[in-house]
Amino acid sequence: MDPFILPPFENIETDRFTIYTQTSIMLGLWSKEAKARNRAKQLISQTQVLLSKNSAKINPESAAVVNKKIAGTEMALAGGNTEEIIRRTSDLEGASRDYLSRFAKSKLRQNVEALVFAVALALLIRTFVFQPFKIPSGSMIPTLLVGDHLLVSKFIYGTKIPFTDKIVFPIEQIKRGDVIVFTYPNTEHDPSKNNIYYIKRVVGIPGDRIELDGRQLVINGQKVPIEFTGTYMDERNGEQFDEYGEDLFGDEHTVIYRKGRDSTNKGSFIPVSVVPEGHVFVMGDNRDNSQDSRFWGFVPFGNIAGKAFLIHWSWDFESPDIANKVRWNRILSGID
């Protein structure tokens, strides 16, 4: 045949089909062999565990029969004959069923144990490690928006021993500028808010003196630097606010105030002569639209659930456009 002339089209297809068929057969054989070997190894391991855990309860003659089947299966694995592996595995399976079944866990028990373990692990993580929260109000705009879903680190300030107020193993101390989640502290005056979670920014720590000079925080006699950065518009209703960058002794973040007002509400608790030990003073970043320590006082350390550190999801309930309800630019963003 002329070397420069390609074979007929139908021959090319025939060759391709032959190669494909041979490859499929080889892969099928390899797959069958691999499955047989894996099943044999798994059964040997499970059977040996049962024998080891229940050696005192198993009749020696029964154990000898099972061990003989294990040895036969191991020899088949060493020989590499797939059919022999399958046969020996079946023999071992039968012996294990006949002599060890009462020591093995039922499928129902295995499923129940797996479910109990999963629930216990979830509760452990939620109690001591991370807990999710959702932002229901606009008191922390622009840092946090309504519909933001957060993760809160529950161990960063230490782990609270259940049913006590004792905290152990703190990683860091609470500091000014931290965004924290806590339960409402003033329940003696408003029992209806018992166990309701709030999220605010720490502006005062134990020993601090706090005052407000117009829109500017004054802590321990020192004015907290603020710089006007422009206009912020609330995406929910179009309301515009004056936006400032605030530098809370090294923690830089953004706060907003309603336009046309030169000062913000001091509430009933400012000026603060001193933040007591074991407490913090908190405020929302939306300074003219936040119920916070100015109005209901200090937050005890024992009420703090943890430090908010990540927005893992954000959903705009007010958006009429389904495609724009997810705020993609906020997902997996840190909290300053």
Description:
This protein is of the alpha+beta class and about 325 residues long. It has two domains: about 100 residues, Substrate Binding Domain Of Dnak, Chain:A, Domain 2 (Up-down Bundle), CATH 1.20.1270.10; about 210 residues, Umud Fragment, subunit A, CATH 2.10.109. About 35% of the residues lie in helices and about 25% in strands. Strands 1, 2, 5, 6, 13, 14, 15 and 16 form an eight-stranded antiparallel β-sheet that branches. Strands 7-8-9 form a three-stranded antiparallel β-sheet, with no helix packed on it. A three-stranded antiparallel β-sheet has the order 10-11-12, with no helix packed on it. Strand 3 and strand 4 form a beta hairpin. It is elongated and about 90 Å long. The N terminus is likely disordered.
Distance between the terminal alpha carbons, to the nearest Å? Answer: 77 Å
Order of helices and strands: HHHHEEEEEEEEEEEEEHEEE
Proportion of strand residues = 15-25%
Largest sheet: 8 strands, antiparallel
Considering DSSP H and I runs of 4 or more, what fraction of the residues is helical? Answer: 25-40%
CATH first level of the largest domain: Mainly Beta
Q: How many helical elements?
A: 5
Q: Supply the CATH architecture of the largest domain.
A: Ribbon
- How many beta-strand runs? 16
Number of domains: 2
Full CATH superfamily name of the largest domain: Umud Fragment, subunit A
- The average pLDDT is 85
Rg from Cα: 34 Å
CATH third-tier fold name of the largest domain: Umud Fragment, subunit A
Low-confidence stretches: 1-27
